[in-house]
UniProtKB/TrEMBL annotation:
One Pfam assignment: AsnC_trans_reg
Protein's name in the database: Lrp/AsnC family transcriptional regulator
GO biological process, one term: response to amino acid
Alphabetized InterPro entries for the sequence: AsnC-type_HTH_dom, Dimeric_a/b-barrel, Tscrpt_reg_AsnC-like, Tscrpt_reg_AsnC/Lrp_C, WH-like_DNA-bd_sf, WH_DNA-bd_sf
SUPFAM superfamilies xref list: Dimeric alpha+beta barrel, Winged helix' DNA-binding domain
Source organism superkingdom: Bacteria
Species, as recorded: Undibacterium parvum
Keyword Cell cycle: no
Domain HTH asnC-type: 1-62
């Protein structure tokens, strides 16, 4: 990946809807060369997709929580099945395997605290293989999802 590719990534992270013509102008390449590079970055999986960043509060999801989850390894051994169950919940917007006392860190959204509690108790804790949950309510989002640093 050269400086042109890095520059493309920087600009597309700032504005994924930027036209190819404007992008080419910003990185000082011709439009066909720029398009070829963008398509190559997409094919390589460097650019995974394009999305709109939506305000959770604006669509009625006022509560965000981080949930640490540990597995019950004594009674359940199919980790991938647990992961498939976790991925099926739209309330869980991120899931990461982690080191330490817990196995996963989840980012969960809900309309209100009661809904969050019901989701954790009635849905997530019912997934076979889930042993323990610990939730931390987000009081205020200081730095929302942002661009990756391109070095």
């Amino acid at each position: 990946m050269d400086n042109y590719d890095k520059n493309i990534l920087k600009h597309l992270q700032e504005d994924g809807r930027m036209s190819n013509l404007l992008l080419a102008e910003r990185i000082h390449l011709s439009a066909p060369q720029t398009l070829r590079r963008v398509r190559s970055l997409e094919e390589q999986g460097v650019i995974r997709g394009y999305v709109a960043q939506v305000s959770a509060e604006a669509i009625g999801l006022a509560v965000m929580a981080f949930v640490s989850l540990s597995l019950d390894r004594e009674q359940f051994r199919n980790v991938r099945e647990v992961e498939r169950n976790i991925m099926a919940f739209p309330d869980i917007i991120e899931c990461h395997t982690i080191s330490g006392d817990f196995d996963y860190l989840l980012k969960v959204v809900a309309p209100d605290l009661k809904s969050l509690s019901q989701f954790l108790t009635d849905s997530l804790m019912q997934v076979p293989g889930v042993a323990t949950l610990r939730s931390m309510i987000c009081m205020e989002e200081i730095k929302p999802v942002s661009s990756l640093p391109i070095v």
